[in-house]
Each structure stands twice: as structure tokens, then as C-alpha cells.
Amino acid sequence: MKVLGIYGSPRKGGNTDQLLDKVLEGARSAGAEVKRVYTRELNLCGCIECGGCDKTGECVVQDDMQKVYPLLDWAEVIFLASPIFFYGVTAQAKALIDRAQAHWSRQLLEKTPEERKLRKRGRGYLITVGATRGKNLFEGAILTARYFFDALDMSYDGGIFFRSLEKKSAVQENPETLQEAFTLGLKAAAP
């Protein structure tokens, strides 16, 4: 199993990073090959809606996203992790997500509408943490993740969502969250 972890937090070593580390540890223990992308280390812009990918399915903007596209194609399972910023994913994660427009354009060129509904290429999961307890805290991030994975021809298979975790060490004070993360990685990567 080929597993990609996308770290969407601008804060190195925070709760989101720690949870995704644990998810990937679980996946590796199930025998998965694991790769990582740290959005905070990428030099990339969001989609500029130039239409360059409409004819080829390839993004024409030359930046660090060109290193990410092969990883998106390689992965059979993708874990997208982001803290909640204003009821959505971070700007760093969203820039990467928006650039998946090239993959969506590729699907439009290569697949029929019926084939696009099958989402046969793999599965995607969302890991997210929010500081508040808001009823709809994760709804925006879930919708964004769902359509990101759809653009990658992957199904959205849920994830793990934690409220009331703000300070950098909060997950360490809640070992059950780390265990839940490990279990998600284990199950997602199991043959």
C-alpha cells in the first residue's frame, strides 16, 4: 500500500503534525510505504485559473507543486491533515488543494461522467483539530477534503476530528487521540 501524508499545518510539531505522524506510524506498521509532504515548506501559489490544464490535464505553473503532483499520482491512500482556521483548512493546505484542478481537468479529458463517479484510484482521509467546540466546526474542511479527493479520483472515507485541542501539547495530554490516529492509519493501510 502506498500512503501519502499531507501536513497542512503552518505550526511545526503541533497537534495536527503529531496526529498525522501517529496515523502514518500505524500505516507503516501495516506494511505501507509512506511518504510525506509538508505544505509549510512548499513554495507554491494557489490556482491562478489560467486554463492551462484544460487541454492537457497538467498544471503550467512552475513551482513546488510540480514535486507534489507525482506523489498525488503515486498514492493509493492520502491522509490530509490540517488544523481548523475559520472553519476550514489552512491557507497552506488550501493552496495545494486548489492546484488539484489539474487532476480534475485530466479526469474531464480522460473519463466519461460515469467513470468519474467510480473513484477507483484510492481513498482519502481527513485529520483535523479545532480549538473550539462549535457544532459545525469541521463541516467546511470536510467539504473541501471531499472535493479534493474527488478531483484526485479517490473516495473520501472519513477521518478523525478533535475539538478543544489548542495548545501545542494538547494531544500529548489526550493519549486516546493518538491511539485513535494510530488505529486509523493501521486500518486504512491494511491489505
Give the SSE layout:
Blueprint: E1 2-7, H1 15-29, E2 33-38, H2 65-74, E3 77-83, H3 91-98, H4 101-110, H5 113-116, E4 122-129, H6 139-151, E5 154-162, H7 175-189
Parallel strand pairs: 1-2, 1-3, 3-4, 4-5
Helix pairs in contact: 1-7
Shape: globular
Going by CATH, the architecture would be: 3-Layer(aba) Sandwich
Structural class, from secondary structure content? Answer: alpha/beta
Distance from first to last alpha carbon: 7 Å
Beta strand count: 5
Q: Give the CATH class.
A: Alpha Beta
Provide the number of structural domains.
1
CATH superfamily placement: Flavodoxin domain
Give an overview in words:
- The mean pLDDT is 94.
- The protein has one domain: Flavodoxin domain (Rossmann fold, 3-Layer(aba) Sandwich).
- The chain has a 5-stranded parallel beta sheet with strand order 2-1-3-4-5, sandwiched between helices.
- The longest helix is centred in the first third of the chain and has 15 residues, at 15-29.
- α1 crosses α7.
- It is globular and about 50 Å long.
- The protein contains 7 helices and 5 strands.
- With 191 residues, it is α/β, with parallel strands linked by helices.
Tags for this model:
7 helices; alpha/beta; Rossmann fold
In short:
Helices cover 39% and strands 19% of the residues. With 191 residues, it is an alpha/beta fold. 41% of the residues are buried.
